[in-house]
Each structure stands twice: as structure tokens, then as C-alpha cells.
Write a structure and sequence with these properties.
about 550 residues, mainly beta, Immunoglobulin-like, Methanol Dehydrogenase, Chain A, six-stranded mixed β-sheet, 1 helix, about 0% helix
């Protein structure tokens, strides 16, 4: 085992790096996990760490992501150098296309009649919102603390039946409480939901082909826009414009009902636009059954066309367009359409929409009642970095805060949500022995550290200090077989405390340091405890490595 105190060639030890971390990063306020009792929602108490965390720009909040590109430019933990080491971190019962926000994964639960919130660190269910008699139809979208999704009934609906044919919901993303519901009188929810610029956008059908594109006020559910469409695709929303496939054309509207342009596809007979247009760098990219188009987003003028049929939405990252057709993934220069490389999967696979993050393209490949693979490719060369066989038909993958998420489902089998990661994800919180303290009391802080995996955490260190307004009494360690050691101030002294775990933490184990102090502060004084943890093993998610808790002396 590596010694966490060694300093070689001027490099700082883990303990010295962790002190710097505590000094330069504002501490996170720890809110104890809560149980919420609300109509239509079910909650779980058996979540080991608190399932709350700060919002991260690395979240993947809706199908296209908030940049409408299926590219996560904020991912730093996973990349070309370590994607080959991906391992299963956890799996949970959930289906559909997953999304992430604020340390939570949202997906379809139960038999399809629930919207579920799952702790991104542990895979534990946090809450579920039931839609009895309905099936969740869309990928969730999470914006400004609200999760939006659409559902359709499993039985008869519409004329002469009290059940509406479409329900669009807005829920509190933290608790699952319903905020509003929209029930149009249309026939069928035809597309995914996209949320941007204060609007919830989706397409519906009134018969087999005719329909509308809706834009609802994200705060109230009031209708902002209702435009006639023909076989609409999932919309993209960027800079106040809504772009969507409209049968054999693509339409650009503003959210104030102004029709900007229609791009009519003339190069083929009976063209159909598949999936959501991708918006990047002033251009939109969309696919038909025989070609991919790049069009100026403002004018609707053609930039280039390539004769690759693509039945799924594309991804754009760092000036490269990634498009799948059948069992091939193509990389094209996004500005010119020049083909850069292609990757083929032998065996009549179907590739779902790719996701791109930090130089890696992630894709799901499925066979009807056959093999299914999650694959990672070098985004620059197309070289295969990693793959795993999974037993169920896969969703499109997403990449968020050091994790790759994908769901699997098939007829007769329960859906599964898989989380893959590298390194050891350490999770720290602070729990005081009481919330009411007086001058002269002994107060004990517990600092439990979870290794959420997927690897063993070597050289783990916890760094804290005696809180101002208290003096040191003693420290105890519990949890792992070789408990470790601590460096502390003298009895009734103050200063830094550094504890080293003894012999590595296996995945899904806990190591706990308990610090007992004597309160010396007068009534009214706020006592604040801070701590941080780190290990020699790479940590894919450092956002949960620090914790803070404050008490007021009575």
C-alpha cells in the first residue's frame, strides 16, 4: 500500500493536497436526507448518504442536453486515457432514456407507470411519482429544479372516455411533488420533450400524420405556442427559436409565433426527418432516411448534404458531427461535411444516438433479440477503447460527472439502469451527535466516508480541524478492518486533524472518524465543522468530497 505521507521530488502528499482543497473551495452546506410525504409520490429511507449535491455544469439534463448537441463539454473525469477501465458501479430498476441533475438520475420506474428519481452515487431510489393507467412516454427534462415528462394512457382515451390521451407533468425535482399538469385534447404524444428559454416544447398528433407543436410556459404550463405540423419530430430550442422536423421539411419558429423559415427537402421522394435536429455553431443538423443536412440556423440555407441516412439524432463536439446509420457510426467535419472516419459493428446492429464527452464517443448498439453492447470510441480516430455486453436492449447513453449511464429493457424482463465509472468515488458527510449544545458540553462529530466504487480506494485521508469555539477531547475510528491512524492536537488543544485509513477501502464500504470536542463558546456562537477527504486512487466525482455543518450554542 502507498504511504499517504510520502513526499517525493517535491510532490505534495494527499494530506497536503486536501488542506489546499479545503482552503480554496467554498464548503458545501450539508442538508440531512429528508423523507417527503406527498400525493402520488413514494419515498425511500434506506439511502446511505444524503442524496443532495450542488448543481453541476456537467449534468445531462435532457435528451439533447441543454446545449442541444448531445455533447458534454464539462466532463473531465472520464476521457481517452481511462475510458478503457470503465467498470459497473451500480445498477437499479429503471428504464427509458436517463437524465441527470443535482446528483440525481431520473428515469422510468415500475412497469413504465412511474417517473423515478435515483441517487446518482448509489443507485438507490429516492422517490417515485405514479401515473396510474398511464405509461411515461418521454425522456425526462430537468431545468431550474423542475422535472418535466409526458405520459400516455395504456387504455382507451379521448372522445367519450374521461381519460385524456396526453398528460404533460411538471414535478418538484427534489421531492416529486406535482407542480402542474397539462392535458391537451389531441390524439397522441408524438415526440420527446425539450425545455429551454422558459418553454416546454413537444409535438402531438391529431390523427396519423397531422398535429401541433406546443410550447408551454415552464413555470405555469400555460400554452405559449401552438403551431400546425405534419408528423413532427422532437424539437430543439436554441436562442428563442424552435427547430423541428415537419414531415418532409424542417421548420424554424420563434417562441412568439413568428415563422422564420421552412427548409423543404427536394432531393428525394417521400423524405421524412428523423429525430431531433442538433444545433451547434450557428447551424442545425438533421437526418432523413437517406441523407444528413447541415443548414444555416438563421437563414435556413443549405451548407452541405451527405448521402448518409441516419435514423437517429446526431451529436456535435469540437467541430465534428457524429452520426449513426444502421451498424455504422460516421465522423464528419461539421463545417464542410468531409468524412473523417467511420466505425462499423459486424452483426446487423442498430446504433442509437451517440454521446460525446472529453474526447470519447459513447454509443449503444442493439440487435433485435440478440446481443447488445455499450461501446467507447476515441472521438478523434474512431479507435475502440472499451465495450461491454449487456443482456437487454439499450437506450442512448449519457455521460455526466464521471459516470456513463444507460438503461436496458426487453419484453418480459425488468428494466435496468446501469452506471459505469472508474476509480473510487468517495462520499463524505458530517453528523453531529446532537443539534442542541451548551457551553461545557461534549460534542461528537461523525465523519462517515463511503467508497461508492467501482474500485478500491487506496491511501484515503480525512482532513478536518477542531472547530472554533471548541477544544479537542479525543478521536475514534471505525469501519474498515485496518482502521488507520490520526494525527491530532493535544488534549484540550486546537488545530488540524489528519486521519489515514489503514489498508484500502473496498467498494461499498464505510470508514468513520469520530471527533469529540468540548464546547467553550458562549451562547449564541455558531460552531462550524468542515472536512474533506481524498485518496491516491482517482476520484471521478470530487463534488461530494467535502462537507460542512453548523450548530448554534444555546
Amino acid at each position: 500500500m502507498k504511504s499517504p505521507l510520502c513526499v517525493v521530488n517535491g510532490k505534495r502528499s494527499v494530506s497536503s493536497r486536501i488542506v489546499s482543497l479545503m482552503l480554496t473551495i467554498a464548503p458545501l452546506c450539508l442538508i440531512p436526507a429528508a423523507t417527503y410525504t406527498i400525493a402520488n409520490a413514494q419515498t425511500s429511507n434506506d439511502v446511505p448518504p444524503a442524496a443532495t449535491s450542488a448543481s453541476s455544469p456537467g449534468d445531462w439534463t435532457q435528451f439533447l442536453r441543454d446545449n442541444m448537441e448531445r455533447w458534454n463539454p464539462y466532463e473531465t473525469a472520464l476521457g481517452v486515457n481511462n475510458a478503457g477501465n470503465l467498470k459497473l458501479k451500480w445498477k437499479s430498476s429503471s428504464g427509458g432514456n436517463p437524465v441527470t441533475a443535482n446528483g440525481v438520475v431520473y428515469g422510468v420506474g415500475g412497469d413504465g407507470s412511474q417517473l423515478s428519481a435515483i441517487d446518482a452515487a448509489t443507485g438507490q431510489n429516492l422517490w417515485s411519482f405514479d401515473v396510474p393507467g398511464f405509461s411515461v412516454r418521454t425522456t425526462p427534462a430537468v431545468v431550474n429544479g423542475v422535472v418535466y415528462f409526458g405520459a400516455v394512457p395504456t387504455g382507451e382515451c379521448g372522445s367519450g372516455v374521461p381519460t385524456p390521451c396526453i398528460s404533460v407533468y411538471a414535478l418538484n425535482a427534489r421531492t416529486g411533488a406535482e407542480l402542474w399538469r397539462f392535458n391537451p385534447t389531441d390524439f397522441l404524444l408524438a415526440t420527446d420533450i425539450t425545455v429551454a428559454d422558459g418553454a416546454v416544447c413537444f409535438g402531438v398528433l391529431t390523427d396519423l400524420v397531422d398535429g401541433y407543436m406546443y410550447a408551454l410556459d415552464a413555470g405555469t404550463g400555460a400554452v405559449m405556442l401552438k403551431a400546425n405540423t405534419f408528423n413532427p419530430s422532437t424539437p430543439s430550442v436554441a436562442n428563442g427559436w424552435v427547430y423541428f422536423g415537419n414531415g418532409g421539411s424542417v421548420t424554424a419558429l420563434t417562441l412568439s409565433f413568428s415563422r422564420r423559415w421552412d427548409y423543404v427537402i427536394k432531393e428525394q421522394s417521400d423524405p421524412v426527418v428523423f429525430g431531433a435536429p442538433v444545433v451547434a455553431n450557428g447551424m442545425i443538423y438533421f437526418a432523413t432516411n437517406s441523407s444528413i443536412y447541415a443548414v444555416n440556423a438563421n437563414s435556413g440555407k443549405t451548407i452541405w448534404v451527405d448521402a448518409i441516412g441516419a435514423l437517429t439524432p446526431q451529436a456535435v463536439a469540437n467541430g465534428v458531427l457524429y452520426a449513426a446509420f444502421g451498424d455504422n457510426l460516421y465522423a464528419l467535419n461539421a463545417a464542410t461535411g468531409e468524412r473523417l472516419w467511420s466505425f462499423a459493428i459486424v452483426g446487423n446492429f442498430h446504433i442509437l444516438p451517440p454521446a460525446v464527452a472529453n474526447g470519447v464517443v459513447y454509443l449503444s448498439a442493439t440487435q433485435l433479440r440478440g446481443s447488445n453492447q455499450l461501446i467507447a470510441l476515441n472521438a478523434s480516430t474512431g479507435a475502440k477503447l472499451w465495450s461491454v455486453d449487456l443482456p437487454l436492449d439499450l437506450s442512448a447513453p449519457i455521460v455526466s460527472n464521471g459516470n456513463v449511464y444507460v438503461t436496458g429493457s426487453s419484453f418480459g424482463s425488468k428494466s435496468q439502469l446501469y452506471a459505469f465509472s472508474v476509480g473510487s468515488d468517495l462520499f463524505l458527510r458530517i453528523t453531529p451527535s446532537t443539534t442542541t449544545v451548551h457551553q461545557g458540553d461534549l460534542l461528537t462529530y461523525a465523519f462517515p466516508v463511503w467508497n461508492l466504487g467501482p474500485d478500491v480506494a487506496e491511501g484515503e485521508v480525512l482532513n478536518t480541524q477542531v472547530p472554533a469555539g471548541t477544544v479537542f477531547d479525543y478521536v475514534r475510528i471505525s469501519g474498515t478492518p485496518d482502521l488507520g491512524t490520526c494525527t491530532t492536537p493535544p488534549y484540550q488543544g486546537t488545530g488540524q486533524i489528519v486521519c489515514h485509513e489503514g489498508d484500502g477501502m473496498a467498494p461499498n464500504t464505510t470508514w468513520t472518524v469520530r471527533l469529540t470536542v468540548k464546547v467553550t463558546a458562549f451562547a449564541g456562537t455558531v460552531i462550524t465543522a468542515n472536512a474533506a477527504t481524498m485518496a491516491d486512487t482517482p476520484d471521478p466525482n470530487k463534488a461530494n468530497n467535502m462537507a460542512t455543518v453548523s450548530l448554534t450554542v444555546q
